[in-house]
Amino acid sequence: MGQEPWPTELRLSEGGRMLNVSFDDGAQFALSAELLRTQSPSAEVQGHSAAERKTVGGKRNVAIIAVAPVGNYAVRLDFDDMHRTGIYTWRYLRELGETAPERFSFYLEELAAKGLDRDRPGEK
C-alpha cells in the first residue's frame, strides 16, 4: 500500500474563518472554521459512541485562533469559543476536505431537526 498524502501547507485565511490545507499529491482544500468546529474529533463533540455525538449550533462566525502541531501526525485547532480539545490528524483533515459539502449539508439537516441554528449557541 502506498504512503498516504502528506500536508505541505496549513494556512489560516479570512481572519481565521478558513483553514487552507495542501497535500503533496496536489490536493487542496479550503475548510471553514465552522465545519472544523462542528465536526471536531474531540470526545466533547463526538462522544464515546454515536449515541453521544453532539450537534453544535451557533458556530457560523467561529474562528480558529491557533494551530498547534501534535507530533508529526496531526494539529490541534484552538477556536475563539475556547474549544481546543480536537486533534485533527492528517487523514481526518483529508477526509473532511473530500467530504466537506456532504458533511455540511448533513450538519444543516441535523440543526433543523434538533431546533438549532448556525447563529444561536446550543447543542443537542
Properties at a glance:
124 residues; alpha+beta; NE0471 N-terminal domain-like; three-stranded antiparallel beta sheet; 3 helices; GBBH-like_N; iron; DUF971 domain-containing protein; metal ion binding; metal-binding
Describe the structure.
This protein is α+β, with helices and mostly antiparallel strands. It has a domain at 33-118: 2-Layer Sandwich (NE0471 N-terminal domain-like), CATH 3.30.2020.30. Helices cover 27% and strands 31% of the residues. It contains three helices and eight strands, in the order βββααββββαβ. The protein has helices at 33-38, 43-46, 90-113, and strands at residues 7-13, 18-23, 28-32, 56-57, 64-70, 74-79, 87-89, 122-123. The strands form three sheets. It has a three-stranded antiparallel beta sheet. Strands 5-6-7 form a three-stranded antiparallel beta sheet. A two-stranded antiparallel ribbon has the order 4-8. A hairpin with a 3-residue loop joins strand 5 (64-70) and strand 6. It is globular. The N and C termini lie far apart (40 Å). Keywords: Iron, Metal-binding. Residues 11-94 form the Gamma-butyrobetaine hydroxylase-like N-terminal domain. It comes from Methylocystis hirsuta.
